[in-house]
Amino acid sequence: MAYSHYQYILKCTEFEGKLKVIDKEGINKWINVSELKKYKLFPDIPEYVEIAMNGNHFSLLEIHIFQDGDVIKGIKVTKKMEI
């Protein structure tokens, strides 16, 4: 099975406000990039974080994630656009 979803990753340098810790989607928290490997993530998150940390533009990725039951078997970047 393959599925697609939209993921928004923003690089913010001066932000204010209060993080909504718990919502219907799960638990949210601020972490350092170095801590990412400690968490169970969608397999495309490292690609998005790399773009956010090193890019100076807006990028749109089309990524297909292949899954068998609950096991993710792989990912494929099928389209990458920079604006």
Quickly describe the structure.
The protein is mainly beta and 83 residues long.
Overview of the molecule:
This protein has 83 residues and is mainly β. Helices cover 12% and strands 34% of the residues. It has one helix spanning 45-54, and strands at 2-3, 22-23, 26-27, 59-68, 71-82. It has a three-stranded antiparallel beta sheet with strand order 1-4-5, with no helix packed on it. Strands 2-3 form a two-stranded antiparallel ribbon. The chain is globular, with a radius of gyration of 14 Å. The termini are far apart. The mean pLDDT is 79.
Instruction: Give, in spatial order, the strands making up the sheet with the most strands.
Output: 1-4-5
Rg value: 14 Å
Q: Give the overall shape.
A: globular
Mean pLDDT: 79
